[in-house]
Amino acid sequence: MHELAIAGHVVDIAARHADGRTVTKVFLKVGHLRQVVPSALSFSFDLVAQGTTVEGAEMVLEEVPAAGRCQDCGTESVLKSFPLLCEACGESNLQITRGEELYVESLEMEEQQNNEELIADR
After folding, report:
1. Each residue of 40-90: pLDDT tens digit?
2. pTM of the predicted protein model
3. What is the spatial distance between Cα 19 and Cα 21, in angstroms, rounded to a whole number?
4. Using CA atoms, how far apart are residues 92 and 85, in angstroms rounded to an integer?
5. End-to-end CA distance of the chain
6. 39/43 Cα distance (integer angstroms)
7. Residue ranges making up the domain that contains 20
8. What is the domain count for the chain?
9. Structural domain includes residue 52
10. Cα–Cα distance between 122 and 119 in angstroms, integer?
């Protein structure tokens, strides 16, 4: 289950960029060709985030459809299933242009209280 490893990296990235702030949402872009199972990734994310500043954050996953440009006829096709073939000519000589993405697009975080607010709360 590679989703557990992916979730670990996502939590690490989010926690590092949060710099101590609480993360409320993590937005991911995942290409169709990455073969990620969304429910397994979500479960793994919740598990790995426990005890971190990312714990309780919502993971928002956007799947990016696969696409490729045919090297024979030049057509750009959405690649819906395997085998990956050009929609126009049926050839498999494709340059993948989309669908291999896997990255944290953005984070939502709570604002950090400044020292004066912390002292006033005591």
Report:
1. 999 999 999 999 999 999 999 999 999 999 999 999 999 988 899 999 999
2. 0.80
3. 6
4. 5
5. 46
6. 6
7. 2-65+99-120
8. 1
9. yes
10. 5
In this structure, is residue 84 part of a structural domain? no
Please report whether residue 72 resides in a domain: no
Q: Is the distance from CB of 11 to CB of 107 less than 8 angstroms? A: no
- CATH code at 38? 3.30.2320.50
Residues with Cβ within 8 Å of residue 40, at least 6 apart in sequence: 1, 3
Beta bridge partners of 94: 70
User: What pLDDT, on the 0 to 100 scale, is given for residue 113?
Assistant: 59
% the chain with pLDDT above 90: 83
The rounded mean pLDDT for the chain is: 90
Q: Read off the tokens for 102.
A: 């896997």
Would you say residue 114 lies in a domain? yes
| H or E stretch covering 84 | none
